[in-house]
């Protein structure tokens, strides 16, 4: 009855139709490049007992964990992010953790939902990448159609309750002459990690070997380029493992929630056109 | 033993010394213009049972309620905002509300403190006002040494749990030819209300008479000026009244917490110099 849909068939669909396809289980893949202009979000779902500390953690580490949405008590609908978003079905694929250990990967979490769960949406790098490309900056991982390289660092997060751990960064090679402009453009998007965390020296932030990323694929640095590092949405997943909640659910890296919020909005809240 | 200190004597004190004076009860007045370059913050203190909903409210109304700090469980020390900040003593003057009604004004809340209270710090307009003045924009309320005029509006906040109510705005007359620049400058400070909420027509946001502000003093609009409205830190005080917590404590308008955080920081977290 259902069938897996190809990424290329999805490129021209509006956000609501994309979510319908995803909700039905027909697409479980990555969302880079889909629904241009719409805010996409990392997802972390936790029991409400952890919610205050997790929000403290997001506030203190806002470059890595820019909070763009929080579900209401006992509701799986994220009404501030879209007209019909059900967080139990509208992410392409999920990862279930129990007591801090990854357990399984699923495309629907209705059977895991409990009324004490709270869903948190965090902004992602797609937003500033789109802005960079619109201003003529070439991004190697996108041109090569690979996942951006990500690294653990020696930079500590500011802990909150049981949430702690190192900052995870993504790296993009940038022409030396473009670094200033790239910094200014990405800094315009505080809900999408903002400006770079570090430019130039991987060893200064505890990265031993650029050619061996912890996640994603390596990108070579050309003669006229420098490595530029941004705080990354994998940071909270790391912190969440350390918190050892009885249950925690996240999106699979790259498989984001597609929202109805315009990614250029100053405050990421969806308001229906007739409201 | 103690004596009330004059505002003018405080202008050259560093932040930590100012907090010492305030902590000792020797100064209970407004903090505009003190400790230039240091982030100042609105304060809301609530029982932890309200914390998740209040943080939801701040996320959804981030222009009015930009969260810059949250105290840890059962601790009155706001270590992410400074080296020695005790929220029970370090605000010049406080207002105590019980069941949604203002009860008393005090300069120290040690006798009201409970271990289930959580203190929230929200960014304030002093930050963008300083940036505007540094770029040559004149601000009438500062030149006249009066409190900025503030108004209730017909713009609704996005509710969260029991927190709801209209957005409160502050108004500054700005030369028509400067509006674009003023908008761009203030938009650089998302933790200080960001860009204007509205420019030009008070009636469009439900303000009937500019000459009768709900708080502060009126400012006349000259021929070559337009009224420019920013979301205001009084908004959460309004929402908090609607939530009718058994206890809620706020700063007195204008009497802010002076932090050790540099107001130009992208993420408002204090890190000691030797850390």
UniProtKB/TrEMBL annotation, chains A, B:
Keywords, in A-Z order: Lyase
Lineage: superkingdom: Bacteria
Classification via InterPro entries: D-Glu_cyclase, Putative_hydro-lyase, UPF0317
This protein's record includes keyword Cell membrane: no
Record EC number: 4.2.1.-
Pfam families membership: D-Glu_cyclase
Family (UniProt): Belongs to the D-glutamate cyclase family.
Cross-referenced NCBIfam families: PRK05463.1
Protein name: Putative hydro-lyase OOZ53_15280
Lineage: Bacteria, Pseudomonadati, Pseudomonadota, Alphaproteobacteria, Hyphomicrobiales
